[in-house]
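Help needed: design a sequence for this.
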Protein backbone atom coordinates (compact mmCIF):
# COMPACT_ATOMS: atom_id res chain seq x y z
CA UNK A 1 0.00 0.00 0.00
CA UNK A 2 2.84 2.43 0.60
CA UNK A 3 4.62 1.77 -2.70
CA UNK A 4 8.26 1.91 -1.76
CA UNK A 5 8.90 -1.28 -3.75
CA UNK A 6 9.18 -1.94 -7.49
CA UNK A 7 9.84 -5.02 -9.62
CA UNK A 8 8.40 -8.53 -9.42
CA UNK A 9 11.21 -11.10 -9.36
CA UNK A 10 14.03 -8.55 -9.04
CA UNK A 11 12.40 -6.55 -6.29
CA UNK A 12 13.78 -3.31 -4.88
CA UNK A 13 12.54 -1.59 -1.72
CA UNK A 14 14.16 1.73 -0.81
CA UNK A 15 14.07 3.60 2.49
CA UNK A 16 15.30 6.86 3.95
CA UNK A 17 15.00 10.63 3.81
CA UNK A 18 17.39 13.40 2.86
CA UNK A 19 18.23 14.48 6.40
CA UNK A 20 17.66 11.18 8.21
CA UNK A 21 20.46 8.92 9.45
CA UNK A 22 20.82 6.92 6.26
CA UNK A 23 19.21 5.83 3.04
CA UNK A 24 19.33 2.42 1.47
CA UNK A 25 17.50 -0.47 -0.11
CA UNK A 26 16.74 -4.14 0.09
CA UNK A 27 17.14 -6.04 -3.18
CA UNK A 28 15.21 -9.28 -3.05
CA UNK A 29 15.17 -11.95 -5.75
CA UNK A 30 18.74 -11.57 -6.98
CA UNK A 31 19.92 -15.00 -8.17
CA UNK A 32 22.70 -16.67 -6.14
CA UNK A 33 26.40 -17.04 -7.00
CA UNK A 34 26.80 -13.68 -8.76
CA UNK A 35 30.08 -11.99 -7.76
CA UNK A 36 29.22 -8.81 -5.85
CA UNK A 37 31.53 -6.49 -3.91
CA UNK A 38 30.76 -3.05 -2.47
CA UNK A 39 33.25 -1.61 -5.01
CA UNK A 40 30.98 -2.76 -7.89
CA UNK A 41 28.17 -0.65 -6.44
CA UNK A 42 30.40 2.24 -5.39
CA UNK A 43 31.51 2.78 -8.99
CA UNK A 44 27.97 3.72 -10.03
CA UNK A 45 27.27 5.70 -6.85
CA UNK A 46 30.37 7.81 -7.49
CA UNK A 47 28.93 8.86 -10.85
CA UNK A 48 25.70 10.12 -9.20
CA UNK A 49 27.44 11.66 -6.16
CA UNK A 50 26.89 15.39 -5.58
CA UNK A 51 29.64 18.02 -5.40
CA UNK A 52 31.85 16.66 -8.17
CA UNK A 53 31.83 19.87 -10.19
CA UNK A 54 30.55 23.42 -9.83
CA UNK A 55 27.57 22.36 -11.96
CA UNK A 56 25.91 20.16 -9.32
CA UNK A 57 24.82 20.69 -5.71
CA UNK A 58 27.71 21.41 -3.37
CA UNK A 59 26.38 18.98 -0.74
CA UNK A 60 29.44 16.85 0.15
CA UNK A 61 28.21 13.28 0.41
CA UNK A 62 30.75 10.46 0.01
CA UNK A 63 27.82 8.08 -0.56
CA UNK A 64 29.83 5.16 0.76
CA UNK A 65 27.78 1.98 0.47
CA UNK A 66 27.85 -0.93 2.91
CA UNK A 67 26.47 -4.36 2.06
CA UNK A 68 24.72 -5.61 5.20
CA UNK A 69 23.43 -8.96 3.96
CA UNK A 70 22.95 -11.33 1.04
CA UNK A 71 26.61 -12.01 0.16
CA UNK A 72 29.05 -14.70 1.27
CA UNK A 73 32.57 -15.78 0.29
CA UNK A 74 32.45 -18.51 -2.33
CA UNK A 75 35.02 -21.12 -1.28
CA UNK A 76 35.98 -22.10 -4.81
CA UNK A 77 36.80 -18.58 -6.07
CA UNK A 78 37.46 -16.79 -2.78
CA UNK A 79 35.14 -14.05 -4.09
CA UNK A 80 32.12 -12.53 -2.38
CA UNK A 81 29.01 -13.74 -4.20
CA UNK A 82 25.28 -13.25 -3.79
CA UNK A 83 23.56 -15.96 -1.76
CA UNK A 84 20.01 -15.60 -3.13
CA UNK A 85 18.84 -13.99 0.13
CA UNK A 86 17.83 -10.31 0.46
CA UNK A 87 20.71 -7.91 -0.17
CA UNK A 88 20.49 -4.93 2.18
CA UNK A 89 22.52 -1.84 1.27
CA UNK A 90 22.98 1.24 3.41
CA UNK A 91 24.43 4.68 2.65
CA UNK A 92 24.83 7.10 5.53
CA UNK A 93 23.80 10.75 5.21
CA UNK A 94 26.73 12.77 6.49
CA UNK A 95 26.35 16.29 5.09
CA UNK A 96 22.89 17.52 6.03
CA UNK A 97 22.34 21.20 6.82
CA UNK A 98 18.79 21.25 8.10
CA UNK A 99 19.12 24.92 9.16
CA UNK A 100 19.25 25.88 5.46
CA UNK A 101 15.56 25.00 5.39
CA UNK A 102 14.50 26.86 8.57
CA UNK A 103 13.37 29.99 6.64
CA UNK A 104 11.11 28.05 4.30
CA UNK A 105 9.87 25.32 6.60
CA UNK A 106 6.26 26.50 6.49
CA UNK A 107 6.30 27.74 2.87
CA UNK A 108 5.71 25.57 -0.15
CA UNK A 109 8.39 25.63 -2.85
CA UNK A 110 6.48 25.91 -6.16
CA UNK A 111 7.38 22.80 -8.15
CA UNK A 112 8.42 20.80 -5.07
CA UNK A 113 6.48 18.20 -3.14
CA UNK A 114 5.80 20.01 0.18
CA UNK A 115 2.15 20.83 -0.53
CA UNK A 116 1.24 17.40 -1.91
CA UNK A 117 2.89 15.59 1.03
CA UNK A 118 0.92 17.83 3.43
CA UNK A 119 -2.28 17.24 1.45
CA UNK A 120 -1.72 13.47 1.58
CA UNK A 121 -0.15 12.81 4.98
CA UNK A 122 -0.93 15.91 7.03
CA UNK A 123 2.80 16.57 7.55
CA UNK A 124 6.02 16.71 5.62
CA UNK A 125 9.72 16.53 6.39
CA UNK A 126 10.79 19.89 4.97
CA UNK A 127 14.52 19.24 5.57
CA UNK A 128 16.04 18.82 2.11
CA UNK A 129 12.75 17.57 0.70
CA UNK A 130 12.58 14.53 3.01
CA UNK A 131 11.56 11.43 1.09
CA UNK A 132 10.98 13.57 -2.05
CA UNK A 133 14.69 14.41 -2.11
CA UNK A 134 16.85 12.95 -4.85
CA UNK A 135 18.97 11.42 -2.03
CA UNK A 136 16.57 8.48 -2.36
CA UNK A 137 17.83 7.89 -5.89
CA UNK A 138 21.25 6.86 -4.54
CA UNK A 139 19.52 3.69 -3.32
CA UNK A 140 18.15 3.08 -6.83
CA UNK A 141 21.61 3.52 -8.33
CA UNK A 142 22.96 0.97 -5.83
CA UNK A 143 20.23 -1.52 -6.78
CA UNK A 144 20.91 -0.83 -10.46
CA UNK A 145 24.55 -1.83 -10.02
CA UNK A 146 23.34 -5.29 -8.94
CA UNK A 147 20.75 -5.41 -11.73
CA UNK A 148 23.45 -4.81 -14.35
CA UNK A 149 25.00 -8.17 -13.43
CA UNK A 150 21.88 -10.24 -14.06
CA UNK A 151 21.32 -10.13 -17.83
CA UNK A 152 24.43 -11.79 -19.34
CA UNK A 153 26.40 -9.39 -21.58
CA UNK A 154 23.93 -6.50 -21.18
CA UNK A 155 25.37 -2.98 -21.24
CA UNK A 156 23.25 -0.02 -20.10
CA UNK A 157 24.54 3.52 -20.59
CA UNK A 158 23.08 6.98 -20.82
CA UNK A 159 23.99 10.48 -21.86
CA UNK A 160 22.62 13.99 -21.47
CA UNK A 161 21.40 15.04 -24.92
CA UNK A 162 19.82 18.42 -24.22
CA UNK A 163 20.08 21.14 -21.61
CA UNK A 164 17.73 24.10 -21.98
CA UNK A 165 17.87 25.01 -25.70
CA UNK A 166 21.25 23.31 -26.31
CA UNK A 167 21.17 19.88 -27.97
CA UNK A 168 23.93 17.44 -28.86
CA UNK A 169 24.91 17.09 -32.49
CA UNK A 170 24.41 13.37 -33.09
CA UNK A 171 27.03 13.29 -35.83
CA UNK A 172 29.61 14.01 -33.09
CA UNK A 173 28.23 11.37 -30.65
CA UNK A 174 31.09 9.61 -28.86
CA UNK A 175 30.27 7.40 -25.86
CA UNK A 176 33.86 7.67 -24.64
CA UNK A 177 33.31 11.43 -24.14
CA UNK A 178 30.47 10.90 -21.66
CA UNK A 179 32.93 10.12 -18.86
CA UNK A 180 35.22 13.03 -19.81
CA UNK A 181 33.02 15.97 -18.88
CA UNK A 182 30.83 17.01 -15.93
CA UNK A 183 27.61 16.94 -18.00
CA UNK A 184 27.68 13.34 -19.29
CA UNK A 185 27.59 14.88 -22.78
CA UNK A 186 28.49 12.55 -25.68
CA UNK A 187 29.27 15.61 -27.83
CA UNK A 188 32.62 17.20 -26.84
CA UNK A 189 31.87 20.39 -28.77
CA UNK A 190 28.77 21.00 -26.66
CA UNK A 191 30.70 20.97 -23.36
CA UNK A 192 32.06 24.57 -23.45
CA UNK A 193 28.62 25.77 -24.53
CA UNK A 194 26.98 24.05 -21.55
CA UNK A 195 29.66 25.37 -19.17
CA UNK A 196 28.98 28.94 -20.14
CA UNK A 197 25.23 28.45 -20.27
CA UNK A 198 24.94 26.79 -16.85
CA UNK A 199 27.32 29.26 -15.20
CA UNK A 200 24.99 32.00 -16.40
CA UNK A 201 21.89 30.13 -15.17
CA UNK A 202 23.51 29.73 -11.74
CA UNK A 203 24.61 33.35 -11.60
CA UNK A 204 21.01 34.41 -12.18
CA UNK A 205 19.86 32.13 -9.31
CA UNK A 206 17.78 30.20 -11.82
CA UNK A 207 17.71 26.56 -13.02
CA UNK A 208 17.20 24.62 -16.23
CA UNK A 209 15.80 21.32 -17.53
CA UNK A 210 17.39 18.56 -19.61
CA UNK A 211 16.80 15.45 -21.71
CA UNK A 212 18.64 12.17 -21.09
CA UNK A 213 18.89 9.22 -23.47
CA UNK A 214 19.31 5.70 -22.08
CA UNK A 215 20.47 2.83 -24.29
CA UNK A 216 20.54 -0.84 -23.28
CA UNK A 217 22.64 -3.03 -25.56
CA UNK A 218 22.75 -6.84 -25.85
CA UNK A 219 19.28 -7.36 -24.42
CA UNK A 220 17.92 -10.68 -25.68
CA UNK A 221 14.73 -10.78 -27.76
CA UNK A 222 11.65 -11.95 -25.87
CA UNK A 223 11.74 -9.90 -22.64
CA UNK A 224 8.44 -8.31 -21.70
CA UNK A 225 4.81 -9.38 -21.70
CA UNK A 226 2.11 -8.71 -24.24
CA UNK A 227 -0.54 -6.78 -22.35
CA UNK A 228 -0.17 -5.61 -18.74
CA UNK A 229 3.54 -6.16 -18.31
CA UNK A 230 4.79 -4.52 -21.49
CA UNK A 231 8.50 -3.85 -21.37
CA UNK A 232 7.96 -0.33 -22.68
CA UNK A 233 5.30 0.50 -20.10
CA UNK A 234 7.50 -0.80 -17.28
CA UNK A 235 10.51 1.20 -18.55
CA UNK A 236 8.34 4.31 -18.88
CA UNK A 237 7.00 3.87 -15.34
CA UNK A 238 10.50 3.36 -13.95
CA UNK A 239 11.93 6.44 -15.67
CA UNK A 240 8.87 8.54 -14.89
CA UNK A 241 9.33 7.52 -11.25
CA UNK A 242 12.62 9.45 -11.06
CA UNK A 243 12.23 12.79 -9.29
CA UNK A 244 11.60 15.75 -11.59
CA UNK A 245 10.93 13.60 -14.70
CA UNK A 246 8.04 15.00 -16.73
CA UNK A 247 8.20 13.04 -19.99
CA UNK A 248 9.41 9.69 -21.33
CA UNK A 249 9.64 8.37 -24.85
CA UNK A 250 10.67 5.00 -26.26
CA UNK A 251 12.42 4.86 -29.62
CA UNK A 252 11.29 7.73 -31.82
CA UNK A 253 8.50 8.44 -29.32
CA UNK A 254 6.52 11.61 -30.05
CA UNK A 255 8.30 12.09 -33.39
CA UNK A 256 6.50 8.99 -34.76
CA UNK A 257 3.30 11.04 -34.87
CA UNK A 258 4.75 12.97 -37.84
CA UNK A 259 6.07 9.89 -39.69
CA UNK A 260 4.54 7.83 -42.44
CA UNK A 261 4.15 4.06 -42.03
CA UNK A 262 6.97 3.39 -44.48
CA UNK A 263 9.32 5.78 -42.66
CA UNK A 264 8.51 4.24 -39.30
CA UNK A 265 8.79 0.58 -40.43
CA UNK A 266 11.91 -1.08 -39.08
CA UNK A 267 12.52 -3.26 -42.15
CA UNK A 268 13.98 -6.73 -41.63
CA UNK A 269 16.68 -8.78 -43.31
CA UNK A 270 18.55 -11.88 -42.18
CA UNK A 271 21.87 -11.29 -40.42
CA UNK A 272 24.93 -13.49 -40.82
CA UNK A 273 24.28 -14.79 -37.31
CA UNK A 274 20.91 -16.29 -38.41
CA UNK A 275 19.11 -13.63 -36.36
CA UNK A 276 16.89 -10.95 -37.91
CA UNK A 277 18.73 -7.78 -38.83
CA UNK A 278 16.60 -4.64 -38.51
CA UNK A 279 17.50 -1.84 -40.91
CA UNK A 280 16.48 0.87 -38.41
CA UNK A 281 15.28 1.14 -34.82
CA UNK A 282 12.38 3.58 -34.69
CA UNK A 283 10.65 1.22 -32.24
CA UNK A 284 13.46 1.58 -29.68
CA UNK A 285 13.94 -2.18 -29.49
CA UNK A 286 10.43 -3.09 -28.33
CA UNK A 287 7.46 -4.42 -30.33
CA UNK A 288 4.23 -5.66 -28.79
CA UNK A 289 5.65 -4.94 -25.34
CA UNK A 290 8.50 -7.45 -26.00
CA UNK A 291 12.17 -6.82 -26.75
CA UNK A 292 13.31 -7.35 -30.37
CA UNK A 293 16.99 -7.95 -29.58
CA UNK A 294 17.90 -4.48 -30.87
CA UNK A 295 19.15 -1.75 -28.55
CA UNK A 296 16.46 -0.56 -26.16
CA UNK A 297 16.35 3.23 -26.46
CA UNK A 298 14.46 5.54 -24.10
CA UNK A 299 14.60 9.26 -23.40
CA UNK A 300 13.32 11.25 -20.47
CA UNK A 301 12.79 14.96 -19.89
CA UNK A 302 13.73 16.45 -16.53
CA UNK A 303 12.19 19.73 -15.42
CA UNK A 304 14.23 22.67 -14.07
CA UNK A 305 15.09 22.48 -10.34
CA UNK A 306 12.31 24.08 -8.33
CA UNK A 307 14.64 25.42 -5.59
CA UNK A 308 15.79 28.73 -7.04
CA UNK A 309 16.95 32.10 -5.75
CA UNK A 310 14.53 34.00 -7.97
CA UNK A 311 11.55 34.99 -5.74
CA UNK A 312 8.33 33.11 -6.52
CA UNK A 313 4.80 33.61 -5.21
CA UNK A 314 3.47 30.85 -2.97
CA UNK A 315 1.35 30.09 0.10
CA UNK A 316 2.32 28.71 3.51
CA UNK A 317 0.95 25.77 5.51
CA UNK A 318 -1.42 28.13 7.34
CA UNK A 319 -3.12 29.45 4.23
CA UNK A 320 -1.25 32.79 3.91
CA UNK A 321 -0.04 34.14 0.58
CA UNK A 322 3.68 34.89 0.62
CA UNK A 323 6.89 34.80 -1.45
CA UNK A 324 9.72 32.29 -1.39
CA UNK A 325 13.42 32.35 -2.20
CA UNK A 326 15.16 28.98 -1.78
CA UNK A 327 18.73 29.29 -0.57
CA UNK A 328 20.96 26.33 0.29
CA UNK A 329 22.77 23.92 -1.97
CA UNK A 330 20.82 22.84 -5.03
CA UNK A 331 21.47 21.36 -8.45
CA UNK A 332 21.07 24.09 -11.09
CA UNK A 333 20.23 21.29 -13.56
CA UNK A 334 19.05 18.05 -11.96
CA UNK A 335 19.28 16.38 -15.37
CA UNK A 336 23.05 15.99 -14.96
CA UNK A 337 22.97 13.63 -12.00
CA UNK A 338 19.84 11.97 -13.42
CA UNK A 339 22.02 10.24 -16.06
CA UNK A 340 23.26 7.34 -13.85
CA UNK A 341 19.82 7.17 -12.21
CA UNK A 342 18.19 6.58 -15.60
CA UNK A 343 20.70 3.81 -16.30
CA UNK A 344 19.92 2.20 -12.95
CA UNK A 345 16.16 2.22 -13.46
CA UNK A 346 16.54 0.74 -16.95
CA UNK A 347 18.87 -1.99 -15.60
CA UNK A 348 16.43 -2.87 -12.79
CA UNK A 349 13.49 -3.22 -15.19
CA UNK A 350 15.50 -5.36 -17.62
CA UNK A 351 16.84 -7.59 -14.83
CA UNK A 352 13.30 -8.09 -13.57
CA UNK A 353 11.97 -8.97 -17.04
CA UNK A 354 14.93 -11.27 -17.73
CA UNK A 355 14.12 -13.26 -14.58
CA UNK A 356 10.40 -13.24 -15.42
CA UNK A 357 11.15 -14.58 -18.92
CA UNK A 358 13.43 -17.28 -17.50
CA UNK A 359 10.72 -18.21 -14.97
CA UNK A 360 7.90 -18.50 -17.49
CA UNK A 361 9.61 -19.66 -20.69
CA UNK A 362 12.97 -21.08 -19.60
CA UNK A 363 15.87 -21.16 -22.09
CA UNK A 364 15.69 -18.85 -25.14
CA UNK A 365 13.39 -19.99 -27.98
CA UNK A 366 15.32 -21.52 -30.92
CA UNK A 367 14.78 -19.23 -33.92
CA UNK A 368 14.37 -19.48 -36.92
CA UNK A 369 11.94 -22.39 -36.76
CA UNK A 370 12.19 -25.49 -38.92
CA UNK A 371 9.39 -25.34 -41.49
CA UNK A 372 6.93 -28.17 -40.81
CA UNK A 373 7.43 -31.09 -43.24
CA UNK A 374 11.04 -30.17 -44.12
C1 LIG B 1 19.52 13.95 -9.43
C2 LIG B 1 18.46 14.88 -8.93
C3 LIG B 1 18.82 15.94 -8.12
C4 LIG B 1 17.87 16.82 -7.64
N1 LIG B 1 18.27 17.90 -6.90
C5 LIG B 1 17.35 18.80 -6.50
C6 LIG B 1 17.74 19.97 -5.79
O1 LIG B 1 18.93 20.18 -5.53
N2 LIG B 1 16.77 20.84 -5.41
C7 LIG B 1 15.46 20.65 -5.72
O2 LIG B 1 14.62 21.46 -5.35
N3 LIG B 1 15.06 19.56 -6.39
C8 LIG B 1 15.96 18.63 -6.79
N4 LIG B 1 15.54 17.53 -7.49
C9 LIG B 1 14.14 17.40 -7.88
C10 LIG B 1 13.20 17.07 -6.73
O3 LIG B 1 13.61 15.90 -6.06
C11 LIG B 1 11.77 16.91 -7.28
O4 LIG B 1 11.46 17.96 -8.13
C12 LIG B 1 10.75 16.89 -6.17
O5 LIG B 1 10.88 15.66 -5.47
C13 LIG B 1 9.31 16.99 -6.65
O6 LIG B 1 8.97 15.87 -7.42
P1 LIG B 1 8.58 15.96 -8.98
O7 LIG B 1 9.44 17.04 -9.56
O8 LIG B 1 8.93 14.60 -9.52
O9 LIG B 1 7.12 16.29 -9.05
C14 LIG B 1 16.50 16.62 -7.97
C15 LIG B 1 16.13 15.53 -8.77
C16 LIG B 1 17.09 14.66 -9.26
C17 LIG B 1 16.69 13.52 -10.14
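Sure. Designed sequence:
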Amino acid sequence: MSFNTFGHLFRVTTFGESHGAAIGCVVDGCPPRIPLAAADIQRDLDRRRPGQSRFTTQRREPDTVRILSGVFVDEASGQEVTTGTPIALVIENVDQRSKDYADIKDKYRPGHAGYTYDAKYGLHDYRGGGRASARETAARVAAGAIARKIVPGMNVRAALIQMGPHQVDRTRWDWAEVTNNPFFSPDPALVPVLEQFLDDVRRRGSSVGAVIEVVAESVPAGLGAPVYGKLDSDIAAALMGINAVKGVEIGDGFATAAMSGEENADEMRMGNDRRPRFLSNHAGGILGGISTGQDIVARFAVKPTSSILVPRRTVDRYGNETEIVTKGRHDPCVGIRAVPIGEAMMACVLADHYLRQRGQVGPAVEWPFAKPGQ
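The first strand starts at residue 5 and ends at 6.
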